[in-house]
Specification:
The chain has 335 residues and is of the alpha+beta class. Helix content is 41%, strand content 20%. The chain is built from 11 helices and 10 strands. It has a 7-stranded mixed sheet, sandwiched between helices. Strands 2-4-3 form a 3-stranded antiparallel sheet. Strand 7 and strand 8 form a beta hairpin. Helix 1 packs antiparallel against helix 2. It is elongated and about 120 Å long. The chain starts with a helix and ends with a helix. Bound molecules: 3,4-dihydroxyphenylalanine. 3,4-dihydroxyphenylalanine (DAH) binds next to strand 9 and strand 10.
Length: 335
């Protein structure tokens, strides 16, 4: 009997060691320890042994053989599982780091560079950065900026209207300029206000060398007591020198915008004496202050706005604005 037990145990251990799959393990487990398994069968024969001592000795031997086989099965199963998992991982591995040549560190797009430098310069002059949504209400984009529905100045803005759940048709637009951030800021902050608002704007325009339907502007708004045109001119001049360099200077020209009175356009003069038109500006119209919940008798202010892409284009002498929106690395990496 003891020999049979040892033989069954050794045969089982040998099979376990040779098992190459989890299926093998399941089968061996059944063949040896299952209901009809080799060791289980031997147990049923214990009763046929003659003496009590023989039964006890064989019983103990059987128990330890079962334990040994069971432990060997567990250990081998764990090994095979680990191997199977490693094989799956290896088979499903996706190498996302593969590169053919050594990777190069990139840099921000020239529009982002201009945007960030503008923020740096204006925060240096004491402004904070404000934001507004790109999908805007007609009210913020036009009405509150002193452009009622029939106002002819609306014609200059090639507006993209959007469907907006719950809002009546024609009352939601992709903002045509960053000026609505003036209104949103006045409605949330108490004066004095000194903010700039860079952001993306949209017009129904066909792309060409100098126009894109999506572009970027930066808005400025100052509201304080006794603000006058001199403060506006001084701020534009300080900005021009800080951003472009000491050799540059600026000028204001009369112009018209519904949301400012008086309104102007400002140009900068390069060291070689060339004048470049930069943007619009003016003293905030009393109606606009009122729409923003600010008393025009107590407060006054100025505002300005200009294109960021244009500045990047001028600075880097990019011939065609469309180049800046291709996402072509051969373009971006030149700057
Ligand atoms: N929003 C104007 C535009 O897109 C630019 C502008 C002009 C902004 C005068 C201003 C301003 O804040 O005072 O053409």
């Amino acid at each position: 009997m003891l020999d049979d037990i040892a033989a069954a145990r050794d045969a089982a251990l040998e099979q376990i060691a040779e098992a190459t799959s989890l299926d093998d393990i399941v089968r061996i487990d059944q063949d040896v320890l299952g209901k009809k398994g080799a060791l289980t069968q031997l147990k049923t024969k214990l009763g046929s042994l003659a003496s009590h001592d023989d039964k006890r000795a064989a019983g103990q031997e059987l128990n330890s053989a079962q334990r040994e086989v069971s432990e060997a099965i567990d250990a081998r199963r764990a090994e095979l599982r680990a191997t199977a998992r490693a094989a799956t991982v290896a088979a499903e591995r996706l190498d996302l780091t593969e590169f053919v040549t050594a990777p190069r560190r990139g840099h921000t797009h020239i529009v982002t560079q201009a945007w960030e430098r503008l923020e740096d310069v204006f925060t240096g002059l004491g402004f904070t950065v404000a934001e507004g949504p790109e999908v805007e209400t007609d009210w913020h984009n036009f009405e509150a900026l002193n452009m009622p529905t029939s106002h002819p100045a609306r014609n200059e803005f090639d507006t993209l209207f959007v469907d907006h759940a719950g809002a009546p048709a024609g009352t939601t637009v992709l903002r045509t300029h960053t000026s609505p951030v003036q209104i949103r800021t006045m409605l949330t902050l108490e004066p004095p206000i000194y903010i700039i608002a860079p952001g993306r704007v949209f017009r129904r325009d066909t792309p060409d060398a100098t126009h894109m339907p999506v572009f970027h502007q930066i808005e400025g708004l100052v509201i304080d007591r006794d603000i006058n045109l001199g403060h506006l001119a001084g701020t534009i001049e300080a900005f021009t020198k800080a951003f472009f360099g000491e050799g540059f200077t600026s000028r204001l020209r009369p112009s018209y915008f519904p949301f400012t009175e008086p309104s102007g356009e400002f140009d900068i003069r390069t060291p070689s004496g060339e004048w470049l038109e930069l943007g619009g500006c003016g003293m905030v119209h009393p109606n606009v202050l009122r729409y923003g919940g600010i008393d025009p008798e107590e407060w006054s202010g100025f505002a300005f706005g200009f294109g960021i892409d244009r500045m990047a284009k001028e600075r880097h002498v990019v011939e065609d604005l469309r180049e800046m929106f291709t996402g072509d690395i051969r373009f971006s990496e030149q700057f």
